[in-house]
Design brief:
326 residues, Rossmann fold, 7-stranded mixed sheet, 35% helix
């Protein structure tokens, strides 16, 4: 059975259910447990749900130590940019302990961080810095695009024995969708085909998934059928599903909210170029943000970020149906 929930409620439900299932799961952050009757505190007590100092270095450092001691902390970090002051723990300490100890030490922690708040919040809240967490052995990165996946991936992240960066797109916070009741897990490394089509493959992440789907609907009115793939997890990345789609369509458009030269789309493009070059009937096209800080001004913000019209134009270009300039 499923019912409709907002994205943020689906995440909270996963954390709540995992805390009820496993007493080693902790939950803390700078604005959690500030009152005694806060829901998580009421249900699980102040030993397992805590407010922390305004210090990401302290929060993440405590999480690494707690995880090594056998607990499973979930840290609410609010914004991914705030993690930058603690990147030594995120990329150099937590992910490497398991390998360096020959598997004797596990570091099961979840770093929940928002990103992409493109709603007039300007440069330090709108960033998409996913690429900074990729390519670090032992560190897993997830970016759910639907409430159901937000619940399922959070539960999987909490149960994983490696550190996980759980990226919560802030513009999805109040988006509603059907969410399964009870225990629900979404496996890492398994992409979702959100829409089937035979003319072009669209791969998008996070908030961009809905933009890609909107573009696909627009293109359908022109007789162009786009297949839309949501990777869901970026490390591990499900390349077989993407390559299978490219084999069918022969064309690939990648959509990413990050600036062009720091986008996950570049990683996917490189993999397809190496392992699926012979499948392509046209060059790969990336639709990304401009290499610019996202402005506060709404019209300038819209200019910097991808949208469905820009995605649709990219699809027309790879299909050779774009209008020729006079």
């Amino acid at each position: 059975m499923s019912r409709e929930l907002p994205y943020i409620a689906a995440i909270d439900e996963a954390i709540h259910q995992e805390m009820a299932r496993d007493e080693t799961v902790l939950y803390y952050g700078q604005n959690l447990a500030t009152v005694e009757n806060a829901p998580f505190v009421s249900d699980f007590g102040a030993d397992r749900v805590r407010v922390t100092p305004i210090s990401e270095t302290a929060e993440i450092g405590m999480a690494v130590g707690a995880a090594m001691a056998g607990l499973r902390p979930v840290v609410e970090l609010y914004m991914a940019e705030f993690m930058l002051v603690a990147m030594d723990q995120v990329t150099n300490e937590a992910p490497r302990m398991r390998a360096m100890s020959g598997g004797q030490v596990k570091v099961p922690l979840v770093l929940k961080a928002g990103y992409g708040f493109a709603a007039g919040w300007a440069g330090q809240h709108t960033g998409v810095i996913t690429n900074m967490f990729l390519g670090v052995p032992g560190l897993k990165v997830v970016a759910p695009a639907t409430p159901a996946d937000a619940k399922g991936l959070m539960a999987t992240a909490i149960r994983d024995d490696d550190p996980v960066v759980f990226l919560h797109h802030y513009l999805l916070t109040l988006v509603h969708g059907d969410v399964p009741e009870g225990e629900y897990l979404v496996p890492f490394g398994q992409a979702s085909v959100r829409r089937t089509g035979g003319d072009v493959t669209l791969v998008a992440t996070g908030w961009m998934v809905d933009r890609a789907l909107a573009a696909a609907e627009l293109l359908a009115g022109e007789g162009i059928e786009a297949e839309v793939i949501d990777p869901r997890t970026l490390a591990p990345l499900d390349m077989p599903t993407i390559l299978s789609s490219v084999e069918k369509t022969g064309r690939l458009v990648l959509v990413d909210q990050a600036p062009r030269h720091s986008a996950v789309s570049g990683v996917i493009a490189g993999e397809v170029a190496e392992h699926g070059f012979g499948l392509l009937k046209a060059p790969i096209v990336q639709v990304t943000a401009l290499d610019a800080t996202v402005p506060y001004s709404e019209p300038l913000e819209a200019h910097v970020l991808p949208d469905e019209d820009r995605i649709a134009s990219a699809v027309r270009s790879v299909l050779g149906t774009a209008p020729v300039a006079a």
